[in-house]
């Protein structure tokens, strides 16, 4: 009663006071639940150790690595040069151990490709989380055909992802069907695939992930003008590759894919390049530039040499270490540097496209 007198509420009916108290309790409970539900940002990544700093200064350090955790794919692109010859995927703990070894050897950028990485979403998401939270990898990107991506993945793991690259070779129904960019060749390739590409571009903007496109120029799309659609999608980078033959993967009819019928002439390649070179996001890469300039890791963490001549594999870095595995293949560091393999590759606070000329250049992959 003394408190009520102090507050000047002695004349207020008890029922009113009870209502006020009830409202206050409900409001407090609501605010408490909202605070508990609010997503917490990931903790800052650990800084590089003294040994990691020394490794990064090594001119031959594996600064940017492309990891193919699985060869499995739900699409049937006829020119694929990393074909579905095995359903193997490493145990998650072994994959994590491999990433740690790479980080300790000086890796700063990890690109996860395939196969189709999103056929294993839990494995993929845990690699992202582990790579950022526990290893502090500067930049992590994914290359995907986009068919299995859902918005939930962005909600759960988008904060760990810097770049998402989507493969899109055409905006024409018949062209996608001819290429095989569909579920095992079914004729739904086309519009469903293109619609999904636009959805993913929107999700990338919403969840602050840098959106990128990859296109393989081949006999079915070299004469297509993609300028309008690319400008609308506004990727920060549009990487355009010349169709490539890799011995041991796609060079003849004995392989899972025979890419010979997809090859183009140098004149056709030049025509496509000239048609799109006005786009600020456009980055062409012919076969000569690509050969030997990428560090590629297969599903068993073996380095692959897909340059000139038959494909070669190293021993697994899990068995012999990163340096020894790298010595067993040819990595053309000069070509890597020449094509501009290293940029400022971490996503900014607000991601935006570069086809409007507004964003700065980023990493090639």
Automatic annotation (TrEMBL):
Region feature (Disordered) = 36-56
- Sorted alphabetically, which CDD domains does this protein's record hold? Radical_SAM (cd01335)
User: Which Gene Ontology terms cover its molecular function?
Assistant: 4 iron, 4 sulfur cluster binding; catalytic activity; metal ion binding
Any Pfam family the entry gives:
Radical_SAM
Arranged from A to Z, the UniProt key words for this protein are: 4Fe-4S, Antiviral defense, Iron, Iron-sulfur, Membrane, Metal-binding, Mitochondrion, S-adenosyl-L-methionine, Transmembrane, Transmembrane helix
Keyword Cytoplasm present in the record's keywords: the answer is no
- Cofactor(s) demanded: [4Fe-4S] cluster
Is Membrane included in the keywords of this UniProt record?
A: yes
Bias (Pro residues): 39-48
A biological-process GO annotation: defense response to virus
- TM ranges are 6-31
The record places domain Radical SAM core at 59-274
Q: NCBIfam families per the record?
A: viperin_w_prok
Q: What is this protein called?
A: Radical SAM enzyme
Species of origin reads Colletotrichum zoysiae
């Amino acid at each position: 009663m003394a408190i009520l007198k102090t507050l000047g509420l002695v004349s207020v009916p008890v029922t009113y006071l009870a209502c006020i108290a009830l409202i206050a309790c409900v409001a407090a409970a609501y605010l408490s639940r909202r605070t508990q539900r609010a997503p917490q940002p990931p903790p800052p990544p650990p800084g590089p150790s003294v040994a990691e700093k020394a490794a990064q200064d090594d001119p031959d350090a594996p600064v940017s690595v492309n990891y193919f955790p699985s060869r499995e794919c739900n699409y049937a692109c006829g020119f694929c040069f990393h074909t579905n010859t095995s359903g193997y995927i490493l145990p998650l703990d072994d994959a994590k151990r491999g990433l740690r070894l790479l980080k300790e050897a000086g890796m700063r950028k990890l690109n996860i490709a395939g196969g189709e990485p999103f056929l294993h979403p839990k494995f993929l998401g845990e690699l992202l989380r582990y790579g950022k939270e526990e290893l502090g990898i500067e930049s992590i990107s994914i290359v995907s055909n986009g068919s299995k991506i859902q918005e939930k993945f962005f909600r759960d793991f988008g904060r760990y992802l810097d770049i998402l690259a989507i493969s899109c070779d055409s905006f024409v129904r018949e062209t996608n069907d001819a290429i095989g960019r569909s579920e095992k060749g079914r004729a739904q390739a086309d519009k469903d695939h293109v619609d999904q590409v636009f959805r993913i571009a929107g999700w990338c903007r919403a969840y602050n992930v840098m959106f990128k496109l990859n296109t393989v120029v081949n006999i079915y799309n070299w004469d297509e003008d993609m300028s309008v659609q690319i400008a609308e999608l506004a990727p920060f980078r549009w990487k355009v590759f010349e169709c490539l033959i890799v011995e041991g993967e796609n060079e003849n009819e004995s392989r899972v894919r025979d890419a010979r019928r997809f090859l183009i002439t140098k004149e056709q390649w030049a025509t496509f390049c000239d048609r799109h070179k006005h786009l600020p996001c456009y980055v062409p890469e012919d076969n000569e530039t690509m050969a030997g300039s990428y560090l590629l890791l297969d599903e068993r963490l073996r380095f692959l040499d897909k340059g000139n001549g038959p494909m070669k594999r190293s021993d697994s870095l899990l068995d012999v270490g990163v340096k020894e595995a790298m010595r067993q293949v040819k990595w053309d560091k000069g070509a890597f540097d020449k094509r501009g393999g290293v940029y400022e590759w971490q996503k900014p606070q607000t991601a935006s496209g570069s086809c409007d000329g507004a964003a700065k250049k980023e990493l090639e992959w």
